[in-house]
Structures are given as C-alpha cells and as structure tokens.
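Field notebook, page 165. I keep forgetting to write these up properly, so this time I am using the form the group agreed on. The chain and the ligand, iron/sulfur cluster, are recorded exactly as supplied. Prediction of the bound pose follows.
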Amino acid sequence: MKRKRNQPFYDTGLKFECTRCGKCCSGFPGYVYLSEEEILRIANNLMLKPSQFIDSYTKIVRILGQHRLSLIEKPPFDCVFYEKGCMIYEIRPYQCISYPFWRRHIVSLREWNKLGEFCPGINRGILFSKEEIEDLLNNVPDYNIMNFSPNFLHHLNSGIKEKNM
Ligand code: SF4
Ligand code: SF4
C-alpha cells in the first residue's frame, strides 16, 4: 500500500529484537547520557552515594550547547558497564533502553536499514507500533546539567573530577 504524504515510513511499525551481541556497547567511542533520576537510581542500586557514582563512572561532556554527564569508557572504548553483556541491564539508562529508536535512526527507511548493517536486531523479532516508537522518541529525559535540581548539583560538585570540566 502506498504511504500518504506526511505518513512516517514507520507508520505500520518496525521490527526489532536485541540479540545481545554487545556491538552497541563496546569497541567504539560514544556517549551514554544520564539524567538526574537515572544517576540517583543507578547509584542507589550500586549502593553508592551519587557523588561516588559520579566520580567513578561518569564524565562531563559538552554537546549541543549543554553540559551533560555521560558514562565513562574502558579500553578499547567499551562502556564501563560492559562485561560480556551489560552489568546493569535491568537498570540501564533510557538511552540504552530506547536504542535503536533514536531520532537519527528514524529519519528514513534508508537510515533504519543502514543501521541494520551494524545492529543484527534490526528488522527481526518484535513489531514496535508507530505509537510505541514515538513514545520512545518523545520521552527522552532532560540531560542538561543546568536543569538538574540544586540538591543534585551539590552531589555533582562533590563528586565530579576537575579534569572533566
Ligand atoms: S547492536 Fe543491536 S542487537 Fe547488538 S546489543 Fe546492540 S541493540 Fe542489541
Ligand atoms: S549501560 Fe549497559 S546497555 Fe548501556 S551502553 Fe553500557 S553496557 Fe551497554
């Protein structure tokens, strides 16, 4: 059936099922941004103070005019939580949960299929509806440190390494 003008290419949904191959977690540089809520949740789960978690597992990066906290990497550009799989899978950040439904991958069928050359989960398994895809696209948390609560900025000041500023 022919798509109407303004209908997104994913109008009838897209298939995706993670094979847990780990390719998107390892082997190349990248950022995994963290919201305030995610930092508190992951730190709590690891039984760390937020400032300890920030100090040990994050760095500040500047992107799109914002300062954000991102997970650090270990050689050779693996996510700090990648060890033959995600060590925090059940509490992984939204950025990981929502992959591969990121705006830059959903701009066209061509981009989506191109991603399939990298990610073996593309176009297989579970059918995500248009509404589910748009929920994932529209619920990205606020990563801008300047919008975090004053209380959180206190943790940040205590925990962040000067070299990352
Ligand atoms: S590259 Fe794709 S299939 Fe492999 S772990 Fe990442 S999301 Fe899953
Ligand atoms: S937090 Fe887990 S899912 Fe996210 S990049 Fe790191 S290892 Fe992968």
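OBSERVATIONS:
- Residues 25, 32, 79, 81-82, 86, 88, 92-93, 96 surround iron/sulfur cluster (ligand 2) (CB under 6 Å).
- The chain has a mean pLDDT of 92.
FOLLOW-UP: compare against the apo run.
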